[in-house]
Amino acid sequence: SQVARLQRVRASRDEAACQKALDALTDAAEHNTGNLLALAVDAARVRATVGEISYALEKCYSRHKAVTRSISGVYGSAFAGDEGFAKIRSDVDAFAKEQGRRPRMLVVKMGQDGHDRGAKVIATAFADIGFDVDIGPLFQTPAEAARQAAENDVHVVGVSSQAAGHKTLVPQLIQALKDEGAGEIMVICGGVIPPQDYAGLRAAGVAAVYGPGTNIPVAAAEMLQLMRERAA
Predict the structure, then answer these.
(1) How many domains, the chain?
(2) Which of 14, 34, 61 is the last residue of a domain?
(3) Are residues 80 and 24 in the same domain?
(4) Are residues 33 and 96 in the same domain?
(5) Are residues 78 and 192 located together in one domain of the fold?
(6) How far from 134 is each of 8, 77, 97, 118, CA to CA, in Å?
(7) Is residue 67 part of a domain?
(8) Along the 232 residues of the chain, how does pLDDT read in single tens digits?
(9) How many other C-beta atoms can be found within 10 angstroms of the C-beta atom of residue 182?
(10) Under 8 Å CB-to-CB from 220, ≥6 apart: which residues?
(11) Do 95 and 223 touch, CB atoms closer than 8 A?
């Protein structure tokens, strides 16, 4: 495995030379001296890992954090006058009166899945339908996503999966929610998920799985019903 290979590299390298090269990289970044690319190559030649080289620079520059933003009104305007859309908005208003607040959803991207367009579409659409929608940052761990869900007191976490991490990350998310004392939060999945994986996800505790071509107002109605059943 990759972990085993990294362990072998670290065990066989000259640790003092490696640390010296990494320190030189950090020093050059802090004082704006030297060629960072050349110093990174020097560190790699003494078997520093990509993660260690990145961290040597992170000490000075910090790490970029992408902020995911959504817009409002686009989805709703496309459905202006549509009876089905008006019905789901009315249902959301009724849910808010029943429960004392609007249905709240956290849309998350976990692992190395950076394909966020689908997540943005869903977040925008559900906001126009009347949900309160939070969007997590890219590349969250399951523990980070669970913590944000618990802190924001959401009804549901929507996992957007476009890079085949769902079989590993989603069960970890469900366990992390339980660890946060928030096991009652519903988890749904959407995106490019093979149909043969649906049963395994449901067995792990996923309430619903939505694939490409899903009718969003219909999905929202199903989610409202599931939330009502959980609140009963």
Answers:
(1) 2
(2) 61
(3) no
(4) no
(5) yes
(6) 42, 21, 21, 15
(7) no
(8) 788 898 999 999 999 999 999 999 999 999 999 999 999 999 999 999 999 999 999 999 988 776 767 777 788 888 888 888 899 999 999 999 999 999 999 999 998 888 888 889 899 999 999 999 999 988 899 999 999 999 999 999 999 998 888 999 999 999 999 999 999 999 999 999 999 999 999 999 999 999 999 999 999 999 999 999 988 7
(9) 17
(10) 88, 92, 126, 129, 131
(11) no
Report the C-alpha dihedral over residues 206, 211, 214, 217, rounded to 10 degrees: 20
Q: Which domain holds residue 10?
A: 2-61
68 assigned to some structural domain: no
Regarding whether 97 and 185 lie in a shared domain, the answer is: yes
Cα dihedral sign, 171-175-180-185: positive
Do 127 and 12 lie in one domain? The reply is no
Joined together, the tokens standing for residue 9 give 């590299």
Same domain, 126 and 49: no
Pair 110, 28 in one domain: no
- Rounded distance between C-alpha atoms, residue 167 and residue 134, angstroms: 23
Q: Are residues 175 and 221 in the same domain?
A: yes
Residue 96 lies in a domain: yes
